[in-house]
Amino acid sequence: MDNLIGKKLDGLYEVRELIGSGGMANVYKAVMLGHNGPVPAGTVVAVKVLRQEYMHDPDLVRRFKNESKAISLLNHPNIVKVYDVSVNDDLQYIVMEYVDGMTLREYLNQRGGRLTNRETVHFISQILKALEHAHANGVVHRDIKPQNIMLLDNGQLRMMDFGIARISRAENQLLSGKAMGSVHYISPEQAKGDETDCTSDIYSVGVMMYEMLSGHLPFDADDMVEVAIKQISDQPKSLHEIAPEVPNALVEITEKAMAKLPQNRYASAREMLDALDTYVHNPSVMFEYKYITEDAPEKVVKRTMNQNRANRQAEKPAPCGKKAAPRQKKRTIFLPALFGITIAFALACLALCWMILNDSSNLMNNKADITLGDYIGMTQDEAAATEQVVSGQISVTWEQEYNSNYAAGYIYKQSPVSGRTVREGQNVTLTVSLGTQYVTVPDLTNYVQADAEQQLKELGVSVLVTQAVDTSVASGAVIRTDPAAGSQVAAGSTVVMYISRPQVATTTKVPSLTGMSTADARTLLVQNHLGLGSQTEQYSDQPVGTVISQNPAAGSTTKLNGRVNIVVSAGPEPAPEPEAPSDSTTGGDWWSGLFGSGSSSSSTETGTEQGTAGSGDPSQKPLTDWWSSLLS
Fold first, then answer.
1. Are residues 294 and 242 in the same domain?
2. Fewer CB within 10 Å, N- or C-terminus of the chain?
């Protein structure tokens, strides 16, 4: 048994049970005692304790202290809260928020390893918000993976296990040269043991996003070293190939996060969050990111989906045919093609003339170049009162859309963007936020899961499915939602949907075995998902080999596959054997009782006298005299 179970740590935390075990520490469920601690008495907490065998390993102790120092700096709704840290020579532990939920890995497995686009954006956004906070406090996680992220019933994530986190500013060189973290999610520079920064975390997030969208890890192998080598040198299969239905924008975001060179990734978690927000508001957006190549950093390569598609088409060989037939085909196609080219050329000339005339008109009007101002964050009235709008330097087209990140009435998007040089009179489109869009959660009770999910997704909310037991609702149908039906929720938020599942029996009633043979009792127990336990014998008036009692008793409830002990009859108890006669009723006393107390002595005396007198052998006397002397 674990020697910490039942112990009180510093008199503040009573350890109840072991709930997890990691590479260098164990995690226990504990309860806060007293009223002088960091949380109210009775609060359930998680206590992470460094294992005893590592107490004298300076590297592991330093890592544990790093974690203590790192997470004590952090306070964010998507990061597990830390209540207390105790580091001394005898025991080192961290007291954290107890999160009752499943890991993101367990959720992925439950969903078949793949999530919807909306779920992926929902979860990745929360992870990035947690990292934005951690990075702002100088903490790089360095071990981001689904196993280190907890999922609550309300769809909120909690990032945990900063076991190899590094304080990036003060200890920049301490952990360089060591490839730490889960090999399927570590960045190439981390796999090589090079120095890492926040972009390493961005890479790990990209790997998770790739896995969520496709259901596959980008790199996998039986040998962990081989996986690390692939992280360094190989390119993963394109998401377009293994998940062609994923939108181009999400593919581009994933590719940029997973770029081999750190300088090609998003520079910060906020930058990646902004890209996801752009996708949410315009799923058809094309980012057309530019990348620095490793061989020639001064060159940039434009990697857009259109170019990739054009390249694939260019690689297709032209079809071949017989020599005579193509000549006729070319002759028949050439004239229409030439006619089309002529028309296109004429149209181009007309367009060029129009542009020349238009430019001449602009020159005659003497319109000046101006630099567009920044209108994002202004109200519509404030933007309308600016000099460029009032003076007519620009004309404005107003649009309105819902946006939960900006209050109603504020401009959150402009096109062309600020800082661009345009000709006076340029039309600028300014989009004003209508605020957060709220939708009403419908009553989906007893709906089939697929139909209920579809309804919620059409409302623009994310759906988190969990299972529960409710005998009044058919299996696979909706029990309830959280928030409940009729509630107002923001578009893009998460609604938890509880789906009925069959109740799994864990107990059974113990049948009566009395009067059965041992073989029949065993058969009946197996039919009731039980087993036969110990067998003892006892004398009884029941036939030999029949059951006369049992434990647990008949009719009681016990766990499935439990054991039932029986007592078997050994038959009636045998009768006691007669006792042997004692010394007082055997031998000479028996004879004395039969013939009288003095006969022996008389005989002896007679014999003595006869012998003394020398009268001869008594056998020589008459028979009657001999019996007389014997019986007198």
1. yes
2. N
Which residue pairs, CB below 8 angstroms and at least 24 apart, start in 24-32?
A: 24/50, 24/51, 24/54, 24/60, 24/63, 24/64, 24/163, 25/49, 25/50, 25/51, 25/64, 25/163, 26/2, 26/51, 28/4, 29/98, 30/95
Closest Cα partner for 40 from 30, 31, 48, 28? 31
- Do 241 and 204 sit in the same domain of this protein? yes
> Per residue, what are the HEC states of 160-173?
CCCCCCEECCCCCC
Residues 145 and 265 in one domain: yes
Asked if residue 48 belongs to a known ligand binding site, the reply is: yes
Find the catalytic residue in 10, 100, 143, 161. Answer: 143
- The per-residue pLDDT for 51 is 80
143 an active-site residue?
A: yes
Q: What tokens were used for 592?
A: 């004395």
Q: Which residue has the tokens 């954290």?
A: 96
Q: What is the pLDDT at residue 287?
A: 92
Q: Both tokens of residue 105?
A: 């890995």
Measure Cα distances from 103 to 74, 80, 145, 155, 607 in Å.
21, 13, 10, 12, 114
Residues 389 and 420 in one domain: yes
In a domain, 323, yes or no: no
Q: Please state, as a whole number, how many other Cβ atoms lie within 10 Å of the Cβ of residue 574.
A: 7
φ/ψ (deg, to 5) at 411: -80, 130
Do residues 167 and 107 both lie within one domain? yes
Structural domain includes residue 318: no
> What are the strands, taking DSSP E only, across 477-542?
478-482, 488-490, 494-500, 507-509, 531-538
CA torsion 594→600→606→610, rounded to 10°? 110
pLDDT averages per 10-residue partition of the chain, 632 residues: 80 88 81 78 88 73 69 83 79 86 89 90 94 89 90 86 53 38 85 85 96 93 84 90 93 95 94 94 90 54 39 39 40 58 77 63 62 90 90 91 85 88 88 89 91 89 83 88 90 86 79 92 89 91 93 90 91 79 51 46 40 44 51 51
For 55, the domain range is 8-97
What distance in Å separates the CA atoms of residue 243 and residue 122, rounded to the nearest whole number?
Answer: 19
Q: What is the DSSP string of 199-252?
A: HHHHHHHHHHHHHHHHSS-SS--SSHHHHHHHHHHPPPPPHHHH-TTS-HHHHH
> Where do we find the tokens 């107990």?
507
Q: Are 194 and 61 found together in one domain?
A: no
Q: Pick from 524, 549, 569: which residue ends a domain?
A: 569
Q: Hey, how many other C-beta atoms are within 10 angstroms of the C-beta on 125?
A: 19
Cα–Cα dist 139/137, whole Å: 6
Last residue of a domain, one of 366, 384, 411: 366
Indicate left, alpha or beta for 425 from its phi (over 0: left) and psi (-120 to 50: alpha). left
* 156 and 122 Cβ atoms separated by less than 8 Å: no
pTM summary value: 0.49
Domain count, the chain: 6
How confident is the model at residue 243, as a pLDDT? 92
Give the β-pairing of 462-468 and 494-500. parallel
- Residues 250, 278: Cα–Cα separation, whole Å: 11
- Same domain assignment for residues 135 and 14: no
CATH number at residue 496: 3.30.10.20
Give the C-alpha distances (Å, rounded to integers) separating 133 from 10, 94, 263, 299: 31, 20, 21, 34
Half-sphere exposure of 242 (CA within 13 A, CB side): 15
Phi-psi region of 138 (alpha: psi -120 to 50; beta: other; left: phi over 0): left
Residue 578 lies in a domain: no
User: Are 231 and 167 contained in the same domain?
Assistant: yes
